[in-house]
């Protein structure tokens, strides 16, 4: 009985520690060190500030051409752009953790994978039971007040490999493509996974056919 109590206590403490890590997120580097790019502030959306950038979940560190270092909170930043990545601030969404889903209520930086009618975003501060990070994938209708959808997916076998795309994944995405039988067919045939999800959302946003790599049905449940 004592062993069960101790085990439950350890799991509870571990869960609280992971929750605290996810809420602070200060030490989670999304990009760095010093990627060249620019950022736009919330209170002046016309001006671009070129700098070398380091993006954390809860902070942007920018070093300008004169060597001056500025630090900005997500709510102060409208947009971040580097050669290969884009970031925006997001709040009021959930991420998967040890005990289910954790609410992220304050603004944090998320990577913008595709945008248009829908925004597909990635947040790299979710934790599995073993402490490894599992990215949260989020889908939101641009300009809508509705809560972003946290796309459910299961980690596949293999170290560092997360293909996902099981039944819950397909059911979550199906309502967004009711007028696109070509995309519904890809979902039904298990040809969409998190690896080609950005191409799938781009097809929704542009109205064009899906032109990304096809997931192998044998890899998915």
- Structural class, by secondary structure, is alpha+beta
Biggest pleated-sheet summary: 10 strands, antiparallel
Amino-to-carboxy terminus distance:
38 Å
The proportion of residues forming helix, as a percent range, comes to 10-25%
Descriptive labels:
221 residues, alpha+beta, 10-stranded antiparallel beta sheet, two-stranded antiparallel ribbon, 12 strands, 35% strand, disordered N terminus, signal
Write a brief caption for the model:
Keywords: Signal. This protein is of the alpha+beta class and 221 residues long.
Explain how this protein is built.
The chain is of the alpha+beta class. The chain folds into two domains: 25-150, no CATH class; 155-220, no CATH class. Helices cover 22% and strands 35% of the residues. The chain has four helices and twelve strands. The strands form two sheets. Strands 4-3-2-1-5-6-9-10-11-12 form a ten-stranded antiparallel β-sheet. The longest helix has 23 residues, at 2-24. The protein starts with a helix and ends in a 15-residue tail after the last helix. The model is unreliable at 1-27 and 156-162 (pLDDT under 50).
């Amino acid at each position: 009985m004592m062993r069960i109590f101790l085990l439950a206590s350890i799991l509870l403490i571990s869960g609280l520690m992971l929750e605290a890590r996810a809420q602070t997120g200060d030490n989670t580097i999304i990009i760095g060190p010093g990627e060249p790019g620019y950022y736009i502030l919330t209170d002046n959306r016309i001006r671009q500030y070129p700098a070398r950038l380091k993006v954390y979940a809860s902070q942007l560190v920018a070093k300008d051409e004169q060597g001056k270092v500025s630090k900005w909170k997500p709510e102060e930043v409208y947009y971040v752009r580097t050669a290969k990545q884009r970031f925006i601030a997001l709040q009021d969404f959930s991420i998967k953790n040890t005990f289910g889903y954790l609410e992220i209520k304050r603004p944090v930086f998320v990577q913008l994978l595709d945008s248009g009618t829908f925004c597909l975003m990635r947040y790299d501060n979710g934790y599995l039971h073993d402490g490894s990070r599992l990215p949260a994938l989020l889908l939101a209708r641009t300009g809508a007040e509705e809560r972003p959808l946290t796309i459910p997916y299961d980690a596949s076998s293999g170290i560092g490999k997360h293909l996902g795309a099981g039944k819950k994944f397909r059911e979550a995405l199906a309502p967004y493509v009711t007028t696109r039988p070509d995309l519904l067919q890809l979902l039904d045939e298990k040809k969409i996974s998190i690896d080609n999800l950005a191409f799938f959302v781009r097809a929704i946003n542009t109205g064009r056919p899906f032109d990304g790599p096809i997931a192998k049905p044998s890899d998915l449940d």
